[in-house]
Amino acid sequence: MFATTPATADAQNWLPPGSSTEVLSDPPTELIRPDTIRDDKWLYGRLLFRSPSLLGEKAVRIGLSCNSCHPNGHANEDFYINGLSDRPGHIDVTHRFWQAGFGDGNSNPIDFPSLRGVRDTPPYGTINIFPELHVFTRHVIVTEFAGPPPNLEKMEALVSYLNSIDNKELNGNQSIVQTGADMSYLSLLRSPLENRDYAKLNELIDLVRSDYGRRARMPNARIEEIRITVTGLKEIDEKAAANDFAAALMIYENLIPDQ
Predict the structure, then answer these.
(1) Which residues share a beta bridge with 85?
(2) pTM
(3) Helix axis angle, 223-241 relative to 198-216, nearest 10°?
(4) 132, 162, 219, 229: which one has the fewest Cβ atoms less than 10 Å from its Cβ?
């Protein structure tokens, strides 16, 4: 039997003691369908999948993203939150831990499902069942994790990425669809720079800089390269905020050859 109320959260990471949301071994291979068009929509969806901001305040505090529970589309069998899990790989998504006043009062942790091949496996859900991936994904974000309601652009991008996750090894050779932890998202910045859309640019820069922050904590992180890129992003944001998009675009063009 496990505790129905999480222990007092650690002041540094906001998680109850004894908890872990990390994959304790090497992350599983990211399998992407060979016919995937890796355009900006897909890339934006991949970035959102790895961003805690998608899932709301609590997720940001504990560094929880879709990728935390489903690393590269697989199931995180090491994930454990004291008070919400009865064993690793299980989590209670209807607990008040996620948002005050929401909990159903029952201890009902469920398995993390794999998202490999999710495009071909409707309906979706365990406690609540949804016929469409868009509707289910929005339910997870807004209802289960108390995240802000995603706009249409975010939903389309996220589902584009989810639909691309494959469930087949290509005869042991995944090179033609290889992605990797150091994948660059800088191409997403070009359109808002050229269109002088500071609101969109600022949102993307925040997401990308946060991604680099997560990379910096990884083993064998290339800290100097990360520092240069993050500094460049800050300069782009400052120039664009001052309405000097010409200078911001110049900094961007100097930054991308190294990506």
Answers:
(1) 82
(2) 0.87
(3) 160
(4) 219
